Structure formats: C-alpha cells, structure tokens
Q: What sequence folds into this?
C-alpha cells in the first residue's frame, strides 16, 4: 500500500526524480571510476608471490637510479647475504619471422632465476632452468598467447633464431614492462648487452644496461639489506676504482617503484572526487528538504484525518529510497 502510494506521488514529479537520480549517478559514477583506478594501481597486490620484492639500482651522486653493470651484478649475487634470489633483465626488440608477415614483438631477456625470484608459476608449461639446453627457449605472455594462439607453434623464429616455446605466464603478469610479449632466457649468467664491445657480459663494469630485481630472505628487512649492499658497493669501489668509484647501490620496493610517480596524483584525485560525491549528496538532501517544505500543508491535512506519525514517516522514507 505504501509502495503504491509512493509510486503515484513520484509519478507526479518526474523532474524531481530525474534530477535526484542524475545528481547521485554523477557523484557515485565518478567515485567508482576513481576507486577502481586506485584499487588496481595502489591496493591490488602484484601478480607474483607473497615474498617482498625489491628493485636494485646502481647509483652515482645526483643520479640515484642507474642500470646495473654485468660484472657488478655477478658480485652482488655472490657476495650478498640478504636475498633468496637476485635476477636481472633487459628489454629487447624481436622480430618474429615464421608467420605470414614479420611481426615486431617486445621481448625481455632474463636470467634463468627471474621467474623463481618473482615466485610466479606459468599458466601453462614451465619456467626457465639453469640447463644450457634452455638457452634458446621462450615464455609467452598470456595476452600474446591468447592473441596469437591460432598461429603459434612449438617453436618461434625470433631474429632469425629458433626458440622453443616452453610456457605461458599467468594472465595479467606484465612485470617488468607493461608491453612485454615474451621472455627469453639469457644464454650466459647475465643478459646480453645492447652492443658488442668484445668483452663477455659477466666481465663488463663500464657498461650499465641491466635492471635487477631481488627477493628478501625471510626476516630480513630492507634496511638491513641496504646496509649489506652498501658494504658490497664500498668493496667494489675500492677494488675497481676506475669503473666503480662513487658508485653505490639503492634498494627500492617494487610496488613503490611502479606507483611512485602516480601515487600523489591519485590520492589528490580521490579526495577531489570524494568531495564531489559529498556535494552531490548535499544537493539531493537539499532537494528532499525543499520538497518536504512544499508538502507541509498536505502532510498536516493527512495528520488531521488520522494518519499516524509512523505511517507518514514511512511513506517519506519509502519515497526517498525509491527516487534514489
């Protein structure tokens, strides 16, 4: 009975109903959209295992984030006491030549332990191993595998070399690069440098082309790990002063590295949108108050005819719920 009465009342005021709905829809829609962005960027866990990850950088005065030299990476791996694993990677452009037409792909060359450090199990197949027979193997991103599944084979021809497809990453795994299509295994202990300088990659200290990612051992804090690597950096600066003088090591949490530039802007935007939702709610409240003020005479007549206070309040609340 109350519901039917409410519908009849609201049908006589379509402008009020439409204005209320549109006002709330704008506020709620904007808030939902921004929260979805914040949840995906700041709150959602990374698509990897639970252990803490770090990005490892070499540093110079006034340049806190530099790529890593191959020989330095080897020393970090051998001398640190803080990590369960330290992996390296570098982006590579690959041309797939076994299809109907050449296809440019965004590749990542990684050390064999990369997926172990990330604690990521393949969606299909397996990960890389230290076995030298894995030197020409490739793991595809789920998105590329899905996009090109009709044309995939057991092997791919990349830059005129045949690679065996051994696995597919889980959906959404895009670390370290958003556009990564596939991952190849480094044929040596460190990934291949972009230019050939006639020196083995694991002996190069003057060329800095690698990015490194590490997993802390259980119970080790980032502060103690940083102290550990500071000792290693000082030792390398003393031993290899020509290439490592004034070079340090900096640890950065992976999540902060990914979101660091956008975090302040997203928080400011979320505050602004929250304020917008508050304004929308206040406007709707004012509409309800104005409507109630205009109905004082009608409510007074109903009360004089015997309508109880509870029934009147119930109808008003029902109208508010139905109209919004």
A:
């Amino acid at each position: 009975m109350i519901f039917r009465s409410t519908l009849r009342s609201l049908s006589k005021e379509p402008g009020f109903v439409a204005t209320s709905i549109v006002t709330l829809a704008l506020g709620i829609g904007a808030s939902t959209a921004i929260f979805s962005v914040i949840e995906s960027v700041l709150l959602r866990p990374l698509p990897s295992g639970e252990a803490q990850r770090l990005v490892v950088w070499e540093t110079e005065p006034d340049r806190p984030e530099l790529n890593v030299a191959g020989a330095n990476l080897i020393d970090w791996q051998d001398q640190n006491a803080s990590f369960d694993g330290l992996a390296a990677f570098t982006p590579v452009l690959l041309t797939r030549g076994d299809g109907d037409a050449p296809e440019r792909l965004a590749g990542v060359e990684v050390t064999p332990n990369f997926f172990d450090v990330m604690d990521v199990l393949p969606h299909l197949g397996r990960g890389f191993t230290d076995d030298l027979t894995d030197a020409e193997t490739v793991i595809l991103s789920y998105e590329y595998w899905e996009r090109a599944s009709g044309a995939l084979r057991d092997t791919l021809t990349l830059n005129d070399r045949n690679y065996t497809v051994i696995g597919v990453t889980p959906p959404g795994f895009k670390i370290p690069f958003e556009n990564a299509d596939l991952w190849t295994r480094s044929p040596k202990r460190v990934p291949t440098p972009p230019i050939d300088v006639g020196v083995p990659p694991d002996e190069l200290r003057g060329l800095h082309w690698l990015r490194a990612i590490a997993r802390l051992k259980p119970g080790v804090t980032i502060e103690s790990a940083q102290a550990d690597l500071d000792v290693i950096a000082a030792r390398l600066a003393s031993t290899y002063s020509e290439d490592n003088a004034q070079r340090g090591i900096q640890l950065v949490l992976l999540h902060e590295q990914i979101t660091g530039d956008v975090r302040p802007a997203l928080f400011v935007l979320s505050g602004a949108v929250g304020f917008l939702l508050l304004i929308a709610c206040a406007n709707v409240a004012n509409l309800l108050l104005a409507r109630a003020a205009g109905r004082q005479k009608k409510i007074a007549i109903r009360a004089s005819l015997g309508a109880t206070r509870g029934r009147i309040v119930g109808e008003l609340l029902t109208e508010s719920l139905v109209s919004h």
